[in-house]
Amino acid sequence: MKFIETIKNVWKIEELRNRIVVTLGLLLVYRFGAQVVLPGIDAAQLENLQGNTEEGLLGLLNAFTGGAFANASVFALGIMPYISASIVVQLMGIAIPYLQKLQKEGASGQKKITQITRWLTIAICLVQAPGYLASLPALGIPTSAFLLGQGGIFYVSSVIILITGTIFAMWLGEKITDKGIGNGISLLIMVGIIANLPQSFLLNASSRLETNSVMLIVIELVIWLVIILLSIMLVMAVRKIAVQYARRTASGGYEKNVFGSRQFLPLKLNASGVMPIIFAQAIMFVPGLIGGSSFLKETATGQWMQTNFADIFGLWYNIVFGFLIIVFTYFYTAITVPTNKMADDLKRSGGFIPGIRPGSETSEYLDKVMSQITLPGSIFLALIAVFPAIIVKLMNVQTGWALFFGGTSLLIMVGVAIDTMQQVNSYLLNRHYDGLMKTGKNRKAVA
Question: What's the whole-model pTM score?
Fold first, then answer.
C-alpha cells in the first residue's frame, strides 16, 4: 500500500524521524503532567469536580486542557493563559506604537514580543490561579479532600505550582516548534482535545447500544466525517488573485530573461482561523455574569440571562454566539490581513494585478475582495461553530461527543493536522519522495 510505503519513507529520513520522536516524547510528558494532582489534594475525592466539569462552558475549558482542569492537575490552567496573552499582545499591536515598531524589526523584534507575551502570561496566571483554587469547593471538592487545609500555605504553594505548570507547558510547546514537527502550542491543545475523544465516543455509543440504536451510531459517524471534510474545505479554501510581474533579469550562475511571468496571490476564505470563535467564546461568559450580578440576580431578566446563557447548546446562546463569530471574523481579518502592505510589496517587486493600478487602487481592490470572501467564510465558520448544538437537538447526541461535531475543538484538530502534514510533506518532497498530500508533485526516489 502507498500509505505504508510513505510511512517507511518518513522513517528513512533521519532528521524527520528524530523530530517526530522528540515531538511524541514531549507530548507524552505533557499528557503525564495532566494526570498529576496538585499537592495537598486527595485524588480519590475528585469525582464531583469531574462530574461538574463535563458539560457547559466548564466542559469546553476542560476539553482544552485535556482533562487537567477536572483533575485539579499541575497543568490545570493548561496553555490557555499563553494563548490569551498572545491575543492581547496581538490586539495591543494595533494601538501601541512600540509594539508596531517591534513587529517591523524582524527576528529581533519578534524575540522581544515573545518575551513580553511570556511576562503577560505570568500576569494572567497570577489572576487565574487563585480564582481556580477558590472555585474548587464550589465545583464539588469536599473540605476533607484538602489534606493540608485551605490556608495560606496551600494557596501560595498551589499558585506557584499552577504558574510553573503553565510556563512548563509553554516551554514544551516552544521546544516542539523548535526541535520537533508542527506548531508546538497548537499540538498541545490538539492532544488535549483528542484525549477526550475516545471516552466521549464510547459513552455515547454505549447509550445508543442500550436502546438498540446501532444505526444511529453509523449515521453519527458519517455526519462527523462530513463535518470534518467541510472543515478541511474551510481551512484550505483560497481565492487566487492573478498577479503579473514585469520583465526582469534573474541570474543564477548564468543570466536569463524572465518575461512577464504570471503568478497568483492566495487570499484565504477564512483568514482568521479559529480566533473569532475564541473571542466570541470569551464574550459569551459575560451575559451569565451580568445576569448573576447583585443588580439583576433576583429579577426576571437576570434569571432569563442566567438560564439561557449558561447552556452552550441553548437557542439564544447559539444565536448570539453565531452573530459574534461573524462580527469577530471581519474584525480579526481586518487587523491580520494587511492589504496596504501587500499592495506595497507587489509594487516594490514589480508585480501588479491585471487591470488594477499599483498602489492605492490595488490595496482597495484587495480589501474589496477580502470583504466579499469573508462574508461566506464567516457564515460557514459560524455554522460549524453552532453545529454541536444542532446535532444535540436533532439527534440527542451526548454533550461530550457533540463537542467534536464542530466549534473550536474540531477546527483546531483539522487545522493543526493539516499544518503538521504539510511540514512532513515538505521533508518528503525535499528528499525526492512522494508526499503525504495529493497536491504535491510525485517524485521518484533518487538512489
Answer: 0.77
